[in-house]
Design a protein that fits this description.
Layout: E1 10-13, H1 14-24, H2 28-37, E2 56-58, H3 59-88, H4 98-111, E3 113-115, E4 118-119, E5 134-139, E6 145-151, H5 156-170, E7 175-178, E8 192-197
Helix pairs in contact: 1-3, 2-3, 3-5, 4-5
Organism: Myxococcus llanfairpwllgwyngyllgogerychwyrndrobwllllantysiliogogogochensis
Protein name: 4-vinyl reductase 4VR domain-containing protein
Length: 198
């Protein structure tokens, strides 16, 4: 799993957590295990448990859910979850092409996290709080290609799916490959670099 750290008091929006359940919903035993890990309480007259998309969940529990997915489903499961995040997460409204989409991941990432109850990105002021790392996009001039460097506490294969999901919203034929020559969090590195081509 990832090696990057995060500061205390970080929470994740329930809309992002819902993506996990949607990605693995065909594995009912795993869904129940994840709801246990996320400490989701029973709601409703029937005692069913459901995530609240408007609630905020501790990042520690969220990262444990990823460990559970990795243990039970492996890297492909993590990629599938990552690819679903763009579907449910909050993103800035001005995203119109693949370059803007990939460049927006860092802002969206911060918009879906809070630190000590405060949003980690304020769209009105542009203020971004530190404490969970970053996603950095660089376009390659003259090519249909770019790099995304992921330095955050999330698993490498999750980030690969996230980057692919964002790229394919605008270029369905986009491919994403991990560039191990720049290190890997799974092997103790500070970040992972992904090459996006279309």
């Amino acid at each position: 799993m990832s090696q990057a750290s995060y500061e205390p008091g970080i929470t994740v929006t329930g809309a992002s957590v819902v993506s996990i359940v949607e990605a693995i919903q065909s594995f009912s035993v795993l869904v129940n295990a994840l709801l246990d890990v996320m400490k989701v309480q029973a709601r409703g007259a029937g005692g069913e448990r459901a995530l609240d998309p408007s609630a905020w969940y501790p990042i520690e529990d969220y990262l444990l859910a990823y460990k559970k997915i990795d243990t039970l489903l492996g890297g492909r499961g993590l990629e599938k979850v990552g690819s679903m995040i763009p579907k449910n997460a909050v993103f800035p409204p001005d995203i119109t092409d693949i370059h803007k989409a990939l460049a927006s991941i860092d802002v969206a990432f911060h918009m879906n996290h809070r630190k000590n109850g405060k949003d980690m990105f304020n769209p009105a002021t542009g203020e971004m709080l530190e404490g969970i790392g970053h996603y950095a996009y660089t376009a390659i001039a003259g090519k249909n290609e770019g790099y995304v460097v992921c330095g955050n506490p999330y698993p490498c294969r999750f980030d690969q799916g996230l980057v692919k999901g964002m790229a394919q919203r605008f270029m369905p034929n986009a491919t994403v490959t991990h560039d191990p020559t720049h290190g890997c969090r799974q092997k103790g590195g500070a970040s992972c670099t992904f090459v996006v081509s279309w």
